[in-house]
Amino acid sequence: MFLPGAGWEILPPGQARLIPAGSDLIFQVHYQTIGKNARDRSRFGVTFSKSPPKQRIHTIAVGNASFVIPPGDPNYFVRGSFTLFHPVTVLAITPHMHLRGKAFECGVIPQGGEFQSLLRVPRYDRNWQMLYKLSKPVPVDRMSRLHCMAWFDNSANNPWNPDPRAEVRWGDQTRDEMMVGCFEVALPAEVSHTKALYLRPNSQ
Asked: Where are the domains of the chain?
């Protein structure tokens, strides 16, 4: 996910993202109309690892797309979770909302334990959606949950709100909303992220 305020990603030696041979790279770009023609000047570049990596980096998007924000609500709360089926190490987090985003918090809920916060953004600004690198990588056990909480301001007191009278749902347009926390995690390079993160143990 590349957002306002974000820079390019440079991974340290021993870490890399896997792009399997023959893959198609697909980009979803969200444009906002401005009433006149414009030119897309996006560019994409890749630096390849010079040696086999020890860790594979993967992005886990933790979100909730089923919310409905009532008109005028100044503090609407939404949460989302993702259960891990393999241990990971959390390296960084990017929170993502649109114009009604107010605050965001991400963390981990160990199996049978309580929420442990890793990132708090008490004054969210959709103009600067940063990748927050943790000061120390955080190991997380299997069957823990990556957990996100978000608050939205759909009131007239929000100067960015395009329409406080609107009932707001998930959508690609800026006038709609999203709630996603993107966790950058590390896995051993020999582990398939699909099997490790998205398939339950012993599933076919």
From this structure: 15-30+44-198
